[in-house]
Amino acid sequence: MRIRILQGDITTRPVDAIVNAANSTLLGGGGVDGAIHRAAGPELLAACQELRATDLPHGLPVGAAVATPGFRLAARWVIHTVGPNRHAGQTNRALLVSCFSESLRVADSVAAGSVAFPAVGGGVYGWGGRQVAEAAFDAVNGFTASHPDNGLELVEFVLFSRELEDAFNAEWERPR
After folding, report:
1. Residue 30: CATH number of its domain
2. Of 71, 74, 144, 175, whose CB is crowded by the most CB atoms within 10 A?
3. Model pLDDT for residues 108-132, shown as the tens digit of each residue
4. Which of 122, 137, 121, 120 is CA-nearest to residue 174?
5. Residues 115 and 107: beta-carbon distance below 8 Å
6. Could you give the residue numbers annotated as active site?
């Protein structure tokens, strides 16, 4: 599995799946979530409303992940995950790692060969760039070890700022 770290717009990435740093309602919001909903078109909101009406009447739990089609995006799939909100007292690092692990599991289940992640839990949810990067790489390493025959060939971390890109690069280069 190749890892790529870059600054950019996740909604334009030519990958099989992009990960949405969603809120538990799945009905759109600000930041990456809002950008993905705008780029995917109203069909994404309709698909999320259908999930809420059927499989997820109480919303998507923190650390879980679920897929919808990508609709107007270059990506075939959007994988929604809800990061823990440090400002709301959700400080359990395992939940942050689970966002990445569960998203990788869902990507594999929809036969995605490539997936792009934002800094899930960063930004308004209060996790620092290094904390998010460490959780992300722990999840990738754990997923690769437990699913050696997975079909994922490329994992991208598409970050909206130079500061986050630097944090991810520093964490990736850190000896383990």
Report:
1. 3.40.220.10
2. 71
3. 999 999 999 999 999 889 999 999 9
4. 137
5. yes
6. 33
The encoded tokens of residue 102 equal: 């569960």
Interatomic CA distance for residues 50 and 157, integer angstroms:
29
Residue span of the structural domain in which 111 resides: 2-173
**Residue written as token pair 């995006």:** 73
Q: Going by C-beta distance under 8 Å and a sequence separation of 6 or more, which residues neighbour residue 44?
A: 36, 37, 68, 69, 70, 71, 78
Query: Strand 154-159 vs strand 114-117: parallel, antiparallel, or unpaired?
Result: parallel
Model pLDDT for residues 62-111, shown as the tens digit of each residue: 999 999 999 999 999 999 999 999 999 999 999 999 999 999 999 999 99
Can you tell me whether residue 151 is helix, strand or coil?
coil
Q: Assess contact for 50 and 56: CB atoms under 8 A.
A: no
Q: Per the structure block, which two tokens stand in for 97?
A: 């790692």
- Residues 6 or more apart whose Cβ sits within 8 Å of residue 13: 74, 75, 116, 156, 158
